[in-house]
Amino acid sequence: MKMEDMSLSGLDNTKLEALAQDIYSDLVEDACLGLCFEVHRAVKQGYFFLDDTDQESMKDFEIVDQPGVDIFGQVYNQWKNKECVCPNCNRSIAASRFAPHLEKCLGMGRNSSRIANRRIASSNNMNNKSESDQEDNDDVNDNDWSYGSEKKAKKRKSDKNPNSPRRSKSVKHKNALLGPKLCCRSGSSMRAVER
Amino acid sequence: FYWHCVQQHARFIERFGLKELLRAKLTECGWRDQLKAHCKDVIKEKGLEHVTVEDLVVEITPKGRVLVPDSVKKELLQRIRAFLAQHAT
């Protein structure tokens, strides 16, 4: 549809203005009718009054906008230092340490399965070794969550490097001497044996 | 000839998005909410079960026309005139 169809050039200003007013009235009437139809449908479909609540409830659930408090009015870090009782071992644990403790305590989670696997692997490898060596390993494992674990984690990482293809040949040659069983995990237990 | 224009202007309106513009402005300025509140009164008066579209149209439309804020009316008319002027040559 082209605007040329309208050929408005023949119209004088008063007629143009009347046309503009007509268009405007049409638009407003359209908006009103639209609203009527919407409302009528909402009434007949039963959802017109759906979002009405009494004043009291509105006040109860109003969004809170104060410092130090979330939008429900709760203090958001009040549970940080609470103590929880572990349902498994019945120990009282700090909230922020609770998740890792549960992981170990229940024997689930990534780390505890790793530890378990390593224990199995090392106990298989060292079946004919002395008792003291095994205890050594256990102690090292128990330190997983404390500072000691970070040291050990670093150790393990440096173990990885000798095995990576980027390393020089001499390092690889050294690993070959230790035996084919050497890998990241058993690497540390092998080291314990070496000592 | 005049009626020819009037018929054409329905398509004119659609094409230039004037409908949407007006509705958006009316919602923005609270006109819709005002009228909705008025609708509630009508419904309560006529009864939820029995109110018809006619009831609403009769009660709402006159009020709706009056309630349009002057600023909105001005802007709409301006736009309409501008479009008409553009295409009057």
Automatic annotation (TrEMBL), chain B:
Q: Which UniProt keywords apply?
A: Activator, Chromatin regulator, mRNA transport, Nucleus, Protein transport, Transcription, Transcription regulation, Translocation, Transport
Q: Does the keyword Nucleus apply?
A: yes
Domain of life, per UniProt, equals: Eukaryota
User: Which lineage?
Assistant: Eukaryota, Metazoa, Chordata, Craniata, Vertebrata
Q: Which gene encodes it?
A: LOC112245150
| Name of the protein | Transcription and mRNA export factor ENY2
Say which family it is in: Belongs to the ENY2 family.
Q: Name one GO biological process term.
A: protein transport
> What terms describe the molecular function in GO for this protein?
transcription coactivator activity
Where does the UniProt annotation locate this protein? Nucleus, Nucleoplasm
